[in-house]
Structures are given as C-alpha cells and as structure tokens.
Amino acid sequence: MNIDNNHIWHPYNSLPSKTPILNVASTNKCTITLKDGRELVDGMSSWWSAIHGYNNQYLDDALKKQIDEMPHIMFGGLTHDPSIKLTKKLLKILPKGLEKVFYADSGSVSIEVALKTALLYQKARNKPNKKRFLSVFGGYHGDTLGAMSICDPINSMHSLYREYLPQNIFAKMPSINNDSDDIEDLEEKFQNYHEEIAGFIIEPIVQGAGGMRIYRPQYLKRARELCDKYDVLFIVDEIATGFGHTGKMFAVEHASVIPDIMTIGKALSGGYMSFGAMVCTGKISDTISSNPPYALMHGPTFMGNALACAVSLASIELLLNSDWQAKVKNIEAHLSNELGELKSLNIVKDVRVIGCIGVVELTTSEFANTLQSEVVKQGVWLRPFGKLLYTIPAYIISQEELYSITNTMKSVIKKVDSERN
C-alpha cells in the first residue's frame, strides 16, 4: 500500500491519508471482500449508485456485448444505437415534458450543463440580467466550480473556495419540522431577486451530502409556483434521489411537480460507470436553438459514451422488470423499525428514514473516525459523514444483510453513547 499511501489522493482526504484506506480485492452482490480476506456487508451501495449490487450478470453482459461492438466514439457529428435506445427508455420514465437529453461525464458535470443551459436560455430570451441562481442552505450539488457555487456557502466542504466562486443567492433550508418560515423566506428571495435569477435549483425531498435532510413535498409545490410566477427556471437535482431511492422513481413525484430541468446520475448506470445527464423541456431547447447563441456550448470528450449508455439501458431495464418498489418499501420499514430506538440516546439528535435512506444524526461530528473503524470491525461498510451515520443499501440486499447493517449501527452508536455518559 506504499504507492497508495504516498501517491494516490483519495476524496475529501489529505495525502497521505490520516485515516485507514481499505484495499478491496473483489465485490459480489452486497459483499465487499478486502485484500486481507475480510468481508464487509456494503451499506453504501458505492455512494448511492450500485442499486442492483455488484457483479450483476445482466449488466456485465450488456457491457461485454457493447465493448465488442464499439467501446466509444466521439459524439460530435456522430451518434449510435446505445444512446438512442437509452434515450427512448428514459423518455418513458422521466416526468412528462422532460424530453431533451444531454449526456454528461458525471453528476457534477450534468449540474454544470444545467446551469449553462439556464443561462443560455435567458440570453436567448434577451434577458441577460438573469445570470444568478437561487439555491438553499444545506444543499449539495457536486464538486466542480459551478456546482460548488450553488452548494451551501457556509457550512459545506466548499466554503474553502467561497471567495473564488460566483456569488449566488440562498434561501433558508427546507424545514424538517414543517415550519412555515422556510417558504416565507423563499418567497421573499423570489420577490427581491427574480429579475436577476436565471434558475432555482434544489435537491427534491432529500438534501444529500449537505445534511441528509428530508423535507415535505409542499415546499417543492410552492417552489414550482414561485418559479412560474417570477419567470424563473425550476431545476431539480435528482442525481442522488433518482431511480427509486426515495420510494418513487424520481423524488419530484412525491410533490407531483414537473421541473424545467433535471439532472440525473449515480444510479443511472447501476454504479458501473461514471455517467450523468441533463434533461429539459422542449421549450428550453427550442428557445436556445432558435435564437442567439443558437447552441448549447458544452461538449465533453466522453459524452454519450457507448459503454455507459449500454449499461445504463440495461440497468433501467433491470429496475423496471423487478419489484423494486416493494424492495425499497421493505428496506424503509426495516430502517424505521430498527433505527428508531436510537432517538432516545443522548448523542443522537435525530433519526430520519425515507425509501432506502436511513440516517442517524448525532449531536457532534467528533465520533466519525471512531464509528468508521467500529463498523468495519463488525463486518459492515458504512462511511460516516460529519455528524451523520447513514446507510443507503442496494435494493437487492437480503434481510439478513439489512439486520447486519442496522444492528451494527445501533451497536456502535450505543457504545459511543455509553462511553460518553
């Protein structure tokens, strides 16, 4: 591991790492096998992406077939059947009206494309003053520069870059406890700044890395109304929530609203390849394409990668042909029943569950490294984030493996709580 320790920079980490980096030898379904022979039940599904688990034969076969035909071809001036078939499939499951698809390298890049699309749309409408974005505190949209500018500007990991980023507008974070002042503040921001706002962007129903906060659908409904009233594009980031994580195919379905622009990623490819997409309405693409600047000026080298398209198509087919709703509902019930008892502990601030997302928020982040090492000792892979110990398992996880995850979460948190008190 000397090469890794001395030369490989891992995400959100120093070099060399101040925390252990585990060497993975292989994966299978919901099991991670380390090089030293230890096996861990995966409670993270590789940052929300591997919804079918690992080494799925159907996805493997799709990749193998595609690599023999064409692993990649530039998308400028060329196209291919995998992208056409994937788009046809997406149009059947996307919210009605979202019908124009731009394929990107990753979720973060799809956010960049969404922001650029919104800006070009306003330019094409001869509204160049609409060049800022309204977002909410507690949000997270990725690690690239444009994406960072709409993440929480104070408490997120991106606050280090604040002086360098475009200065956007932020409303109060959506309330977990159904308070009304969050919507009042949002309305005030629209009223005061709508002439300079190109788009309002938010993670629907669940704020991810910004705090794993679950909020009410009514907030989204009101946001949609305000966007319409003040002529602002409604942009939703479904990179983490899409493809079933909240119990709906897309989280906006909880509020029965349709955005103008949506970004997708993570589970799009079933966790096999880095891939994302920006989808929008025909009105947006027609406006840009019929007026200056006439084109969406973005062109990733690996845009529409044939392998990524092929495996994404297979992943969606696999999802639609499975009883994924029942599986997610079962995971939700289990997480609610098992993690709920932790609410009474002194170090636990809150327990939140929706779909296959189970979150235990602690009162402090000082235990993150301890919790990380303890869950591994008990044969589970979880990745604490600040004050949060959470799980988002694959939909195929067995009941026994689910118990391994929740029993481990309860055990390590109770141990820390008893040691502190």
From TrEMBL:
Keywords: Aminotransferase, Biotin biosynthesis, Coiled coil, Cytoplasm, Pyridoxal phosphate, S-adenosyl-L-methionine, Transferase
Modified residues (N6-(pyridoxal phosphate)lysine): 266
EC number: 2.6.1.62
Main enzyme class: transferase
Primary location: cytoplasm
Residues involved in pyridoxal 5'-phosphate binding: 107-108, 237, 300-301
Subcellular localization: Cytoplasm
UniProt KW S-adenosyl-L-methionine keyword: yes
Signal sequence, start to end: none
GO CC annotations on file: cytoplasm
Chain positions recorded as substrate binding sites: 47, 140, 266, 299, 383
A Pfam family annotated for this UniProt entry: Aminotran_3
Any single GO BP term: biotin biosynthetic process
Pathway(s): Cofactor biosynthesis; biotin biosynthesis; 7,8-diaminononanoate from 8-amino-7-oxononanoate (SAM route): step 1/1
Role, per record: Catalyzes the transfer of the alpha-amino group from S-adenosyl-L-methionine (SAM) to 7-keto-8-aminopelargonic acid (KAPA) to form 7,8-diaminopelargonic acid (DAPA). It is the only aminotransferase known to utilize SAM as an amino donor.
Binding partners and assembly: Homodimer.
Stated name of the protein: Adenosylmethionine-8-amino-7-oxononanoate aminotransferase
Protein species of origin: uncultured Campylobacterales bacterium
Gene of this entry: bioA
